[in-house]
Request: fold
Amino acid sequence: MDIPFFQSGKKKGLSLFDKKTSVLGIDIGSASIKLIQLRLERERAILETYGELAAGPYNKKSVGQGVHLPDTKVSEVIADLVRETGATTRSVVVGVPLRNSFVTSVSIPPLSAKDLKMAMQYEARRYIPIPVSEVVIDWWRIPDDVMHDSGGNVSTAANQAIDVLLVAVPKDVIEKYRRIVAQAGLDPIAFEIEVFSSIRSAVRREQGGALLVDFGAVTTNMTILEKGIVRSSHSFDRGFQTITIGLAESMGVNFERAELMKREVGLSSRLEHQGTRKVIAPLLDYMLIELERFATGYTRKYGGTISKIYITGGGASMPGLVDHIVKKFGVEVILGNPFGKVEYPAFFQPVLKEIGPSFSNAVGLALRGLQ
Reply:
């Protein structure tokens, strides 16, 4: 689902005014920053360049380690990434972290478009925990065929209720990211909450309920979709860096070695890897409890079922993860493949398949810029 504030409008610097031949998507994470440049050619998205730089070394930490860099350092990483990838355009769509955003659905009586605008300003004051004057808000009415009440029944005007997706981002967050990319020599043409970018690039057209999970280094984002539309999102401060730290402590190795073990061995069932698996599995299961709590809470409230789980982010590619989640939840688990929406030389395929899940946000942002 696209958020109008982030994609169209008349205020300079907040939106796209026209289609760009080439555009950058930049995903600013705590462990790394990712960039991709796409070109629009005959209604096709063509991959021009891509790259990733670890944030850790810019703060005297290890590769893969989540760090909090000063804004000037983030600008430096982006500038280095642009230079090393040979990116040629300066037009960029910037991702806004879910943890810095507010996304929810609210139920209100059926209203005209004019009255809905007034009502959502009031509803925003009820749901958003900071003054409305300090945020940019937007909303979108959810179609009747994806609205359910607590009994799983379709909710329509007949029972006097409509559902509206409400989103908000603090103005100072928008300004922060605008300043960061501008200092790196780029022109921020749009901003988008990362979950919508990931949906665009990694989720197929679904007719039922699905759960999208973005496994980051220090945070995990969860989003429930009904027919491809966001119904609920949640972020918690625990990511796959926890597994790396657990491995380092339990196996008596440094962070770099533990990170390598996580990425190359993971949950392998091979006999010689059982020691690694025994450390990782309980740490992962602790995170999956949060996923189960989130999904169960939603289905109990609104009915319906979750038939698929999409996983993206840097942690999603850990060996054995897909099978482990399948065993835990008993549903189909799909590893995000954002480059499936992009054309590129065939010899890139093995590399892009491997790194694909971690580039879901960046690819989705660039695709947004080409729309």
User: Anything to note?
Assistant: Confidence is low (pLDDT under 50) at residues 1-19, 149-158. Residues 205-335 form a domain with the Nucleotidyltransferase; domain 5 fold (CATH 3.30.420.40).
